[in-house]
């Protein structure tokens, strides 16, 4: 799908004044409320922020009016956004109204004040953690979503082994992309639904912990995320920014590395859209006093060779053992390098990369992964022997129709094939099948002979496998010559104030 983002709304409206204080944000906009309206939000302590579903002195907000206003391309006030988010989180606003509002927002866009207000309202839906009892710097990484993107599972233990604290709140599969939580849950017993006290206990025990949004932390994102997954309302830079940054700002971190994907398997297909999203998120994080960097990285073909929940855990273990596909290892080292650098564990990015390599090659990252799995209730036998992870009952090979070279892989189709196999959700209530997925034997640039397997589908239901096979077959483009130039894994780096390196 190609959406042209409604960016005009960023500049066509009366621009609000956004005051940036340390750990707080204040928005003043004549367009928002008569006489101006201020929203001030302070971070830094564990707090249950006050309920503000209606703004003092203003009339109660009706969901249908907010939907209509956004449908007609008008700017929403802070109060309207707060009321929508609060009402949906508490259950007063039903799924169908929230879905209509999300679709209106996706099609019409949001301006900077609305995006800030949405992020803030989602953040305020739960607690902001105070992790000051922990002396190491707290860092995290978040990806905008990809196919075969399993870097979080490598990074949390590697960076914790290297001396920093990694309190990671992740998401489930979204659209055609896989989700960290679904991958972790393919390890039998692994609990991603820990309450805050348990989250702290695991952090104390091993320096990293990976959970999902909870009733306590980012509950608004927990609900909106699940709804967006199945209502085709993911691909909005404003909604992605609010979703990611509300969770990340709730974690009590000092620094954040964002992996913003671009290419045929990303939500932002065009690099300029990825840069726009990256700048939006970097700006939001810095406004809240965090060190943030965004790496624009390639998602024009799956990352690594395994796509699917348990299959991806298997590949994570390969990387943690110093093996695994080169692209996955390289991206993990790059992202970990930035995490070490932003967290102040090293004095240069190059030293950060070296620290990551040391943590992998010495086995300390793998040992840390084991500790985390144990503390979160996972079955360690599956880590010792990945064949004990859930396995699909059947496999099916996808053969090349001709001799040649793989010149492209339609990456979104591979992700969709995995969802169709049962590795993702088509409805909110669906459970995922941890065992299914795809193993790619050929990637872009590889030579292939007629009838040679390009990929293997791991499946449990034949009709699903047939549909997935058609998608995978159609996703490979075979040419007579190899592609002239390989796309780089790292496209560019976006640092503070919209500055680019
Ligand atoms: N990751 C998130 O957490 N949220 C999004 O909207 C997209 C990717």
Question: Can you describe this structure?
Answer:
- The protein has 501 residues and is an alpha+beta fold.
- Helix content is 41%, strand content 16%.
- The strands form five sheets. Strands 4-7-8-16 form a four-stranded mixed beta sheet, sandwiched between helices. Strands 9-12-14-10 form a four-stranded antiparallel beta sheet, with helices on both faces. A three-stranded antiparallel beta sheet has the order 1-2-3, covered by helices on one side.
- A hairpin with a 2-residue loop joins strand 1 and strand 2 (24-28).
- The radius of gyration is 22 Å and the shape is globular.
- The model is unreliable at 8-53 (pLDDT under 50).
- The site of uracil has 9 residues, from helix 10.
List keywords for this structure.
501 residues; alpha+beta; four-stranded mixed beta sheet; four-stranded antiparallel beta sheet; 16 strands; binds uracil
Cα shape: globular
How many runs of DSSP E, i.e. beta strands?
Answer: 16
Poorly predicted ranges? 8-53
Q: Given the structure, what is the number of helices?
A: 18
Strand content: 15-25%
Strand order of the largest sheet: 4-7-8-16
Structural class, from helix and strand content?
A: alpha+beta
Fraction in helix: 40-55%
Mean of residue pLDDT?
A: 90
Q: Quick summary of this structure?
A:
The protein has 501 residues and is α+β, with helices and mostly antiparallel strands. It has 18 helices and 16 strands. The strands form 5 sheets. The protein has a 4-stranded mixed sheet, with helices on both faces. A 4-stranded antiparallel sheet has the order 9-12-14-10, sandwiched between helices. It has a 3-stranded antiparallel sheet with strand order 1-2-3, covered by helices on one side.
